[in-house]
Amino acid sequence: MGFPILKIPFVALKVLLDHLTIVELVTVSLLSKRADWFLKACGKKNVSFFNLPNSEIRNLSDFEKLELFLLESRRQRQLPEWRFKLFCSVSSDRHIKIGCTHFCIEIYIETLYDMRKFAGIRKSLKIGDSLIPVVVTRGYVGVERIRAFAKSNTDGMIVFIDYFKKRFNFSIEKLELAERNAESIKTVVNYLNSTQAVVRNVECYPPLSEKDFILILRNVSATEKFSSYLKLSWNFKFKETIRAKNIEIRLGHWFTIENLLMSNESEVIHVSGSDYTKKELRWFLKKWREGKLPKLKEVILATKVSCWDALEGCERWEGACRKCDGWPGSVVIIKGHGDSHGCFHASDRNSYRMLIHDN
Ligand SMILES: *[C@@H]1O[C@H](CO)[C@@H](O)[C@H](O)[C@H]1NC(C)=O
Ligand SMILES: *[C@@H]1O[C@H](CO)[C@@H](O)[C@H](O)[C@H]1NC(C)=O
Ligand SMILES: *[C@@H]1O[C@H](CO)[C@@H](O)[C@H](O)[C@H]1NC(C)=O
Ligand SMILES: *[C@@H]1O[C@H](CO)[C@@H](O)[C@H](O)[C@H]1NC(C)=O
Ligand SMILES: *[C@@H]1O[C@H](CO)[C@@H](O)[C@H](O)[C@H]1NC(C)=O
Ligand SMILES: *[C@@H]1O[C@H](CO)[C@@H](O)[C@H](O)[C@H]1NC(C)=O
């Protein structure tokens, strides 16, 4: 729109508007309140980015989608039912991703200091009260990359998270953490803890120091799934409760039976790379039967102990369990707390896997 559209006489404007595409109309209506008022006066009453059909949105560039989305989300009090999700990655590159039924846009966060390194189209985005400089580049195969610049990488990230959290109560669908620079992790997790942001899934990858890992455990809890792929030293110890519904630990020799018993909010716990002893497994089983892990539905622990050994002395029977239908062969069943029972696969060798069912 290279000319001052609002200076055109009303009748001419009306004719002009009839020639604009629906996307152009949205762009005009988002220019200003006055522009939108003119559109309405000309009979274009329902012009909104949120009313665009998918076929139109799909044809926009990522930056256009992001810009129109941000402008429209500022204007509207509510977002449409597009199942918005916000992802956040603090790793070798730092980016956030906004996904929904109509688009998925990644925004890489860089420092202002580095801005001169990037050649591309310079733009800016208004997010909350901040005006964020942006450079849009296109790679060899035409892949668009949006880079947003802030005082620090984490500042830029926090501006986006903060805006969506405060304005639309977004939770973070997934937080990925893998970073050599401890300050980044510290800033992000402190921010999340202090604003009590809801994080649904947390994934920790190397390289992450043990110190940073503890910091993460203390500051953010995943409501859905907590996954760790970290190789931690043999003497690594922690006494924090992991509250996620689902816990997945690889290389988990450090995840002791005590840690397992502290995770009493969890429904599913998988630990590989562990080597639980018969004594530990039996202690865990005892606690489970006493009802110390009331929500547990499935547990898989790496061990060299056969399930027969671990179950020695337990009241148990072999049989069929309706709910374990998918399992071939026979099932060993033990009585649990309340009405529940636990099922083991008789031929499990290197893991201790129990499924728990309520009768
Ligand atoms: C506005 O457009 C949307 C989507 O195209 C439609 O569902 C809605 O009914 C329209 N509202 C009015 C007032 O025309
Ligand atoms: C989307 O772009 C394609 C290719 O440029 C074009 O053929 C199609 O008509 C466009 N669709 C819409 C809804 O504008
Ligand atoms: C915000 O979202 C959380 C879940 O992510 C929910 O528990 C809370 O009730 C929501 N708050 C408001 C004001 O909608
Ligand atoms: C969160 O992390 C900070 C370090 O950044 C630490 O000082 C603080 O104790 C942690 N919060 C909690 C609740 O442990
Ligand atoms: C965040 O910090 C508070 C203390 O301010 C603490 O009680 C809470 O457990 C922390 N959140 C976590 C670990 O999710
Ligand atoms: C988990 O353990 C804590 C501390 O012992 C206890 O307060 C809490 O009620 C337990 N949660 C469940 C679901 O049993």
TrEMBL record:
F-box domain ranges (all copies): 2-52
Signal peptide: 1-25
Keywords from the UniProt entry: Signal
Keyword 4Fe-4S: no
UniProt KW Lipoprotein keyword: no
The protein's name: F-box domain-containing protein
Record organism: Caenorhabditis brenneri (Nematode worm)
